[in-house]
Amino acid sequence: MSDAPTTNPCEACGEATTDALARTVRLSVDRANIDTQRLCPECFADWIDRYQSEMSGGSEDADGGSDSEIIVD
């Protein structure tokens, strides 16, 4: 059995990333896996920043921040 760390590419930038440093982002809806991405630390940080800005509902929205069109049933 080998003790060598395995490396696989980051799915965002393509850089080789060891398993110890890689982060996995999973998107699930109603317990069904929609998407899984393996990211290097830098791309993971970018993903977190993008997620926070898109989910904040702040002034960074393309539609001016209007949530009045969201319908919850």
UniProtKB/TrEMBL annotation:
Q: Where is the composition biased (Acidic residues)?
A: 60-73
- Positions of region (Disordered): 54-73
Recorded superkingdom:
Archaea
Tell me what this protein is called: Small CPxCG-related zinc finger protein
Lineage from the top down? Archaea, Methanobacteriati, Methanobacteriota, Stenosarchaea group, Halobacteria
